[in-house]
Amino acid sequence: MSSPTQQSRRCIPISNRFCCFGKYYVIASTSLAGSKLEPDQLAKILSLANPEDIRILLGKGICIPLVFQEGDYVMDNAIVILGDLTEEEEAEWIGRICGYLKIDCGKLLFVAGGGEPDDWKDALLGKFPDGEVYCFDVIDVSPGDYLVEIYAYVSSLTVADHFTVAYNYSEDRREMEKWFRNTRPDQPLPKWIEAYGNWNSLTIQEELVDYIIRLSLLTSTPTFPQIPKLVPSINWCGKFDFRHPKLCPLGISRSKVLGK
């Protein structure tokens, strides 16, 4: 895979007017990597979700279709980072998905759902609808090819589900407390453990980072040994690679990442 180039760090939250009523998200560019795909063509490919067709989209950097285990609004509070993660951000992530996007137009695009041609038509034109919320968002970036890494942190629903399945933590926070006390003795219990089991808590959603989407400019078009793993039967990306950090995470403040 090509090496990322050095770039100044920018941290940009997805707009608070963006809203996904469902578990499907698509990350792309408004040019669709220069593929000349029409909105109805792309919507059909994503809806039929033939695995070979999805892998072509991924391999050409046209889009990254994401599906989550849980329901609505899962990644609506994500923060886009252009450049390097901080030492804290690198140390505390639990899950990661890596992909590739060709953003030759300099317009990073998020689309909720991804299966409706009319939504794609408006999104590709940047035609925001009237009203309080909308189903897409556009962020300006430098034109180029990008490594895209989606990181899940302890306040995310992705990690909550992983802890339940992998460690049978369920909603019982005692095991989480034990992990924390064993690795960070004499430190106060972090907010995410205090709220453990209440993953829709406004405290967690508003004050802690749940997902970071990191974009790193590449020196040339990458050749990946494998594209992101697809969820069986759905054939969208959703299989995170998980790790268990040596130190129990403290949780990362959104305001700290955004410099507020």
Overall pLDDT confidence: 89
Tell me the total number of β-strands. Answer: 10
The secondary structure category is alpha+beta
The residue fraction in helices comes out at 25-40%
The order of strands across the largest sheet is: 1-4-9-8-5-10
Low-pLDDT runs of 5+ residues are none
Order of helices and strands: EEHHEEHEEHEEHHHHEEH
- Quick one: biggest sheet? 6 strands, mixed
Structural Rg? 18 Å
Distance between the termini: 35 Å
**Can you count the helices?**
9
* General shape: globular
DSSP strand content: 15-25%
Describe the protein:
The chain has a domain at 10-153 and 210-243. 27% of the residues lie in helices and 22% in strands. The chain is built from nine helices and ten strands. The strands form two sheets. A six-stranded mixed β-sheet has the order 1-4-9-8-5-10. The protein has a four-stranded antiparallel β-sheet with strand order 3-2-6-7.
Topology, please?
Elements: E1 10-13, E2 24-29, H1 39-48, H2 51-59, E3 63-67, E4 79-82, H3 87-92, E5 95-103, E6 107-112, H4 117-125, E7 136-140, E8 144-152, H5 157-167, H6 174-183, H7 191-194, H8 202-207, E9 211-217, E10 241-242, H9 254-258
Parallel strand pairs: 4-9
Antiparallel strand pairs: 1-4, 2-3, 2-6, 5-8, 5-10, 6-7, 8-9
Helix pairs in contact: 1-4
